[in-house]
Amino acid sequence: xxxxxxxxxDVNVTMTPTAVKHVRKQLDKKPDAKGIRLAIRKxxxxxxxxxxxxxxxxxxxxxxxxxxxxDVYVKQEHLPLVNGIEIDFVTEGVNSLFRFRNPxxxxxxxxxxxxxxx
Length: 118
Fold this sequence. Notes:
The protein has helices spanning 17-28, 79-82; strands spanning 4-6, 14-15, 35-43, 47-55, 62-67, 70-75, 86-92, 95-101, 105-108, 115-117. By secondary structure, the protein is mainly β.
């Protein structure tokens, strides 16, 4: 099984230093994990939802973005929905979470659960 590896210069997917630091810390605790997957699911009132999960094995349709030593896996079919995205990791009150800044999102639901790309 092989997956094509991209660098940030080949595609427009970025991570903030805070997100890179968080993912590295988590990967240090997960010896079988090779990186993090950014997935898109149909959900919510706006259409799509971001999901993340730890990746132990690349799939044949994965594209891997190597960003400052962190591998971000995205399925080929999801690339149009995440092109230009910036992945951040923020703390809001007592909660810490990934924040996705997608310049192609044309709408988001009020609760922030889902988004639309036209």
